[in-house]
Amino acid sequence: DTGVSQDPRHKITKRGQNVTFRCDPISEHNRLYWYRQTLGQGPEFLTYFQNEAQLEKSRLLSDRFSAERPKGSFSTLEIQRTEQGDSAMYLCASSVQGYGYTFGSGTRLTVV
Amino acid sequence: RKEVEQDPGPFNVPEGATVAFNCTYSNSASQSFFWYRQDCRKEPKLLMSVYSSGNEDGRFTAQLNRASQYISLLIRDSKLSDSATYLCVVNIRDDKIIFGKGTRLHILP
After folding, report:
1. Interchain contact A54–B (C-beta under 8 A)
2. Checking DSSP bridges between strand B11-14 and strand B103-108, what pairing results, if any?
């Protein structure tokens, strides 16, 4: 499969726990994006990387959220001390210099 | 004003009818424009790019009006399989794309 892969597909966690999601982009794509989508809303931009550099973070990305792309390939998104409001679909996308955006299937997080 | 605005719908349209959606964007420096389709509980998928001269792909026609800062999507001879949420997407700079909230379309048999 040469598309964007996200793992896990679903995650149920208790409030206060930490969770980490992984995204493997298309191999030749140098840009990687994280979005969050809640029911009835469009995807909201969280952050993006060009290679290993994190170039922009949205105000939506509170201190409890951290994203990394250590070697310019896969990326992780960690949420610490999860809250019920963090329940959402977390989407990863990759592109080549802003073209050819391709999304992964997403990780659906439920905080109980 | 939000960066990208769409009518959330839902649009309930009989099969075979023509339906059109509009989307407005606030940043006049926006560079490129797209329509994405999203099925329930699935990821967004590119439907078509929108070019200044307008473009057509089968039953789908997209148009851009830079002066009024809106883009449109027209679906002709709608099919049951066209039922989905249609997301208006704007590339504001050469780095990230911004989504509208989406317009829900239900095609009725």
Report:
1. no
2. parallel
Q: What's the gap between Cα B45 and its chain centre?
A: 12
Q: With an 8 Å Cβ cutoff, are A45 and B87 in contact? A: no
Cα-Cα-Cα-Cα dihedral of B13, B14, B15, B21, to 10°?
Answer: -20
Two tokens at B90?
Answer: 């704007």
Segment B2-59, tens digit of pLDDT: 889 999 999 999 999 999 999 999 988 888 899 999 999 899 999 999 988 889 999 9
3-state percent helix, strand, coil for chain A, nearest multiple of 5: 5, 55, 45
Q: Is residue B8 within 8 angstroms of chain A, CB to CB? A: yes
Nearest by CB: A42 against B46, B96, B102: B102
